[in-house]
Amino acid sequence: MAEDLTIAAGSKTEQYQTLLPQINALIHGEPNLIANMANVCAALKEQFNFFWVGFYLIEADQLVLGPFQGPVACTRISHNRGVCGTAWATKETLIVPNVNTFPGHIACSSKSQSEIVIPIIRDEQCIGVLDVDSEQLNQFDEVDAHYLQQVIDLVF
Ligand code: SME
Fold this sequence. Notes:
156 residues; alpha+beta; 6-stranded antiparallel sheet; 4 helices; binds methionine sulfoxide
């Protein structure tokens, strides 16, 4: 399928609730993971205009940059390094209201102020992360964590 997204107004919850079925339709029947990750990034960027949204996937002992939307980013992140590497190590979603106070934060862009990283867990193993960055402080909360987890569950 390739159609325009319907961009929702309203609360963050309403925006995610409008977007989720569209993401489902977008990737339904498409087995190629890269294609689906790419379209998910585009859909999230289009709806929320996030500063940066993208996937990192684990390859050997590092997170390697996957499909994303936004400015160029670091290609490789080590285990337990930065927000992404910490989410990988802890297997927990990390909501960082102010990246400047996160020890070891990896600043791919000095414009990024807050961040959410959701680990992608399959068979109890972390296989990658979904990372979203904002130019505003305090951009992300449990609503984002809840719905971005649902996005991951659609794709993986
Ligand atoms: N800030 C992340 C690095 C990835 S970029 O934000 C795209 C981190 O600390 O892991």
